[in-house]
Amino acid sequence: MASSNEMSRHSDFYISTVTFLVEDCLFKVPREPFQQESEVFCDMFSLPQGDNTVVEGLSDEHPIRIDGTRKDDFEQLLKALLHRKYGSQPNMPHGIEQWTSVLKLSTRWSFEKLRQASIDGLMESGIGAIDRVVLSQQYHVTNWLLPALNELARRPEPITLEEAKRMGIDIALKLASVRERGTVIARNNCCCYGIRRPDDDDVVVSSCRDPRIQNGDFSDQIRSTFSTFDL
User: Fold this and answer.
1) What whole-number distance in Å separates Cα of residue 178 and Cα of residue 190?
2) Residue among 32, 109, 116 at smallest CA distance from 73
3) Residue 92, pLDDT score
4) Residue 14 class from Cβ within 10 Å (0-12 exposed, 13-18 middle, 19+ buried)?
5) What is the mean pLDDT of residues 193-200?
6) DSSP readout, the chain?
7) Mean pLDDT, residues 214-225
8) Rg for the chain, CA atoms, rounded
9) What is the pLDDT of residue 50?
10) What span, in angstroms and rounded, lies between the C-alpha atoms of 78 and 73?
């Protein structure tokens, strides 16, 4: 039997692991995907270690602590990173919430391929226009903003207060300006909402959106109104 000094480690099938502590939970996972796919972790693992320094990540007693991250988000990142790499599709993240977790952490830690996978996963999950506007600003998904704003500009329903709060006052006001250009003054239309003039009970000022607007393209108006945004 060969001694330990005579043994070699297989280049493909000898896995190096790393232990992370996220909130109160330990995760022991293959190190290679982190090192190969993330600039942040690649740089972290490349830092020189002193002779008398305890190397973090090699044991449960000395894990790499990841502060400011929820363990549920980290779990979704691991699902996407490891199951995608090793071909276990049923265990991949599902739905908007889980893919948003992957988008958040892949953006933070520069997992470029994983970030694109999360963007694709969110689109396949049917993410709505409001969510696309919000996430495009949080995580720099620039090619989402213009189509999402166009969809909202065409929408017959008004932007709700809750939606405006989520998007932020600046975007909401600019979007309202774009939508206003598609508003027509009309009377005797059941789709309109009315404000009765206090000085004339028989006169109603009605405002509604032309149904043709739903098939329109507001791209030029959006680019003009949102000129300071990356569209």
Assistant:
1) 23
2) 109
3) 87
4) exposed
5) 39
6) ---GGG----SSS---EEEEEETTEEEEEESHHHHHHBHHHHHHHHS---TTPPPTTSSSSSPEEETT--HHHHHHHHIIIIIHHHT-GGGS--HHHHHHHHHHHHHHTTBHHHHHHHHHHHHHTT--HHHHHHHHHHHT-HHHHHHHHHHHHH-SSPPPHHHHHHH-HHHHHHHHHHHHTTEEE-SS-TT-EEEE-TT-TT-EEEEEE-GGGGG---HHHHHHHTTTS--
7) 89
8) 26
9) 61
10) 9
| CB 111 within 8 Å of CB 35 | no
Single-letter amino acid code for the residue at 202:
D
C-alpha distances in Å from residue 43, one per residue of 36, 109, 139: 10, 11, 22
Highest mean pLDDT among 65-79, 90-104, 204-218: 65-79
Token duo for residue 69: 């991250």
Quick one: pLDDT at residue 15?
86
